[in-house]
Task: structure prediction
Amino acid sequence: MSTPRPINFDAIDPAQREIAVRVGRAWRDLRRGASTSRLIDYLFGSGDDALEVGQMDTLDLLVQQPFWRMGDLADALRVDPSTATRAVQRLERFGLASRCASPSDKRVVMVSITEDGIARHSEAAHRRQEVIMHMLGVFDRDEFEQLASYLERFVGALDEFVAEVSDTTKKN
Result:
């Protein structure tokens, strides 16, 4: 377990506590807000050919390079290999990804995106860009850098916490 950071937060201070409550609500609303399912439908489709967020995350990675080892893909997605396999299997059923054995080691499964997958990703990426541009519209230009920095730090702190909890759980 890494050395804990000094905490700059005072839970006794009512003003700081209220800020923590607001951050918690905002995080919850980001994850489970009423508009989330409608946004996902808009971004990734609805009905029988709808993609799930994890499948879109997988397509995001598959467009970055021609082939991925299944294990490397799972690591990049920060998920268990079986979760990555299920996402790829669904993408395969939609004709958006394909799997094959590695030419150098038949035991290794390689994953790639198909032409249909590239097209589907492009469509979703365009819609996602539209959403991001709309959200940035509520900020002043001089706030863009701060927003990006704060979000990156927020995600980094969450990743760090999860890693520490995982390490502690493994040791027990």
Summary: Residues 144-171 form the longest helix (28 residues).
